[in-house]
Every structure is written in structure tokens, then in C-alpha cells.
């Protein structure tokens, strides 16, 4: 049987796009006939605390859905303190080195990046082996950190750039989730073999309810991480609530600020529903008219995986993040575009939308686009051939 290992910093039962993306890949590869092993930290994201069933362990191994999962020790933290975040990454890197020394790995290894330092650890310690190293790049670091304001162009930034370039050099194959990512990589390693590997979801598409008719205010929903990059707290402050309700699902660093803002502004139509499972979320999303996909700042290389998930659900989108995501929304007629960072334009776009424009035919058309152009199984077959 073909064997493959996936090295990742995120995996279920952790929530979010990163863990879902890798879980889909792992399950998909098993269906392609691979014996899949996943190496990941003890689950701790996004709370920054190791989940209760795994507390006090140095390592936990299980077999779930025919996938062998090794969960390794990590100093868990979601602190904004850069030193603590660095210690967390280094602790997982230490666990990986320990694992590499005492365990035999399959010939083919997929390494998730970011985190940049974790990917570097894998590349450094496996570079002289006979393994085929496949780097799966979902975001461009340190560029993304610079655009988010996390980094400044100083010595530390240039060190991270050298690490990034080293990772690309040592990879035998690179997967990138956007054309911008692949363009950046080939500008550094011109002859490197690359594949566009989008974050397509893999679930049974729901039937569009043709009898459902929305009334009253337009119900807009955001579901996902409540972190700095998404800017949901600022969005709550800037939205015009005259004709809309704004519903929020998820957890993250801005959660307490969002809850406090809602508590102080009960006159506004903002509703926070907490974190729910992906299955529960898919059921809940059927009740909303529109979803919004925001980024506080345009991030080069970023194409939010929510685009592909919502399209499969048939949910029209307002995209508010700039970059390649805009191109996808426009090309496949998935919804509306608001100029990145321009909240006045965002409100004008929202106020221009009427409930009559969000009918079952529109939702069906969006879902058809997803089923035709965002096919996970076809993409996986392409990846399997390249492996």
C-alpha cells in the first residue's frame, strides 16, 4: 500500500480552516489508496490550552477513520506576546525532532507551512533523507506578517525570509493555495515544481430551499476565527445596521471585545452565537441571506477557504478583503465586492442589495459553480498523480 505522512500544526478536534483543510486532505488521500499518518501537536487551538482529554500527556497516538494520528507535546499558548508564541512553536519543533529520531517515516511527507519555523525544522532535519518532501503553503510568511503589522522590516524579518527561501529550496514539490503564492515561490525558485492546491471542501452539498422567502432585514452572517486579521470587532463598529442584522459564529482573540461591544450597544442588531461544530454551522447557515468574508488588511497570497465552502452551500457572499479572493468572487459570480478597508464603500454595497436579489435561483447558480469548478475529488486526483 502507498504510504504518506502529513506534518501539521493544526488538526481536528481543533476547529478552523487550517485543521479542516488538512483533515480533508488526509481523508481524501486514504480514499486514493494511501496509508496516511498525521503528526500534529496535542490539540490546543484556538484556546491556547491543551484540550482536557489530552492534558498531562507527552504523546497520544490513535487511529481515526483509518488515519494514524500522533499528537505530540507542545507548550500551548495563544498569547499576543511574541516570546511566548515563539516558545510554543519551538516546543513543537523540539517534539518533532524527538519523534524523527525514534520513529521511521514514510517516503512521502507533506509539510504544512505556516508556521514557518515548524516547516523549517522539518526541512532541516529531513533534508538529507531519501524522503520526498512536499511543502503545502497556505499563506506567505513573513510577508503576511508584515502586511498584518506583526513584523517590521528588521533583522528578525530578514532571518525569517532566509528561512522561507530555505524551505522552498529543500522542497521536492510545493503546493500553493493561490496563484499569488505560486508566483512568489517561482520568483525565488524558478525551476521548482508547483501545483495550485486550493482549499476546496469535501461534504455533501445541501439542497437549496426554493420555498424559503426572507422578510424584514437582510441577515448577514460571519462564521470563523475572531482574530486580528479578520477584524470582526472593527466591523461591528463600522457596519450600518439600518437594513441588516449581523450574526457572528466563532471564537478567537477578539471574542471578549466583541461580546462587550454587543452588551454596550443593545440597540444594534448584532448577535453572537459562540462557537459551534462544522455540522451545526452548515445547518445554521441555511437560515441566513448573505455571508461576509472580511480581512482587516489585504494579505498577499491569501484566498480565504470560506469562499469555496460557502459556494458549495449556495450562500451568496460579500467579499471585503482584496487580492486574489476578489478575482474568484467576480469570475464565478459568487456575490458582491467591497473595496478592501473602505467601510463606507462596504455599507454602500450592502445598502444596494435587496432581498429580491438573494433568491433560490441565485443560490442554486452559486452552488452549481462550486460543484463544477471547486471539485475536491478532481483536485485530489491531480495531487495524487504528482505525488
TrEMBL record:
Residues 208-357 form the Glycosyl transferase family domain. It holds the Pfam family Glycos_transf_1. The chain crosses the membrane at residues 86-103. The keyword Iron-sulfur does not apply. The keyword Transmembrane applies. One of its GO terms (molecular function) is hexosyltransferase activity. Residues 17-194 form the Glycosyltransferase subfamily 4-like N-terminal domain. PANTHER family: SULFOQUINOVOSYL TRANSFERASE SQD2. This is Glycosyltransferase family 4 protein. The lineage of its organism: Bacteria, Pseudomonadati, Bacteroidota, Flavobacteriia, Flavobacteriales.
Amino acid at each position: 500500500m502507498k504510504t504518506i505522512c502529513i506534518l501539521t500544526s493544526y488538526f481536528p478536534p481543533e476547529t478552523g480552516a487550517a485543521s479542516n483543510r488538512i483533515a480533508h486532505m488526509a481523508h481524501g488521500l486514504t480514499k486514493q489508496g494511501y496509508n496516511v499518518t498525521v503528526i500534529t501537536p496535542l490539540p490546543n487551538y484556538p484556546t491556547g490550552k491543551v484540550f482536557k482529554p489530552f492534558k498531562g500527556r507527552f504523546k497520544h497516538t490513535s487511529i481515526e477513520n483509518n488515519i494514524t494520528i500522533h499528537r505530540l507535546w507542545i507548550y500551548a499558548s495563544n498569547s499576543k506576546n511574541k516570546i511566548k508564541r515563539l516558545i510554543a512553536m519551538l516546543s513543537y519543533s523540539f517534539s518533532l525532532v524527538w519523534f524523527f529520531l525514534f520513529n521511521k517515516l514514510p517516503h512521502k511527507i507533506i509539510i504544512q507551512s505556516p508556521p514557518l519555523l515548524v516547516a523549517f525544522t522539518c526541512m532541516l532535519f529531513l533534508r538529507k533523507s531519501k524522503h520526498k518532501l512536499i511543502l503545502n503553503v497556505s499563506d506567505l510568511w513573513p510577508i503576511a506578517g508584515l502586511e498584518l503589522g506583526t513584523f517590521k522590516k528588521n533583522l528578525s524579518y530578514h532571518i525569517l525570509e532566509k528561512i522561507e527561501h530555505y524551505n522552498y529550496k529543500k522542497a521536492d514539490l510545493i503546493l500553493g493555495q493561490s496563484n499569488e503564492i505560486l508566483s512568489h515561490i517561482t520568483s525565488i525558485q524558478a525551476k521548482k515544481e508547483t501545483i495550485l492546491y486550493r482549499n476546496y471542501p469535501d461534504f455533501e452539498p445541501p439542497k437549496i430551499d426554493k420555498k424559503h422567502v426572507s422578510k424584514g432585514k437582510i441577515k448577514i452572517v460571519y462564521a470563523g476565527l475572531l482574530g486580528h486579521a479578520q477584524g470582526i470587532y472593527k466591523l461591528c463598529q463600522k457596519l450600518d445596521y439600518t437594513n441588516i442584522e449581523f450574526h457572528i459564529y466563532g471564537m478567537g482573540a477578539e471574542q471578549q471585545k466583541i461580546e462587550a461591544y454587543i452588551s454596550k450597544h443593545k440597540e444594534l442588531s448584532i448577535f453572537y452565537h459562540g462557537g459551534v461544530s462544522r455540522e451545526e454551522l452548515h445547518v445554521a447557515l441555511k437560515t441566513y441571506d448573505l455571508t461576509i468574508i472580511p480581512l482587516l488588511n489585504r494579505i498577499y497570497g491569501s484566498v480565504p477557504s470560506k469562499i469555496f465552502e460557502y459556494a458549495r452551500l449556495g450562500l451568496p457572499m460579500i467579499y471585503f478583503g482584496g487580492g486574489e479572493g476578489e478575482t474568484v468572487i467576480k469570475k464565478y459570480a459568487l456575490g458582491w465586492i467591497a473595496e478592501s478597508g473602505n467601510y463606507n464603500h462596504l455599507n454602500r454595497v450592502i445598502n444596494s442589495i435587496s432581498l429580491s436579489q438573494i433568491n433560490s435561483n441565485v443560490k442554486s447558480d452559486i452552488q452549481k459553480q462550486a460543484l463544477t469548478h471547486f471539485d475536491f475529488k478532481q483536485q485530489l486526483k491531480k495531487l495524487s498523480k504528482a505525488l
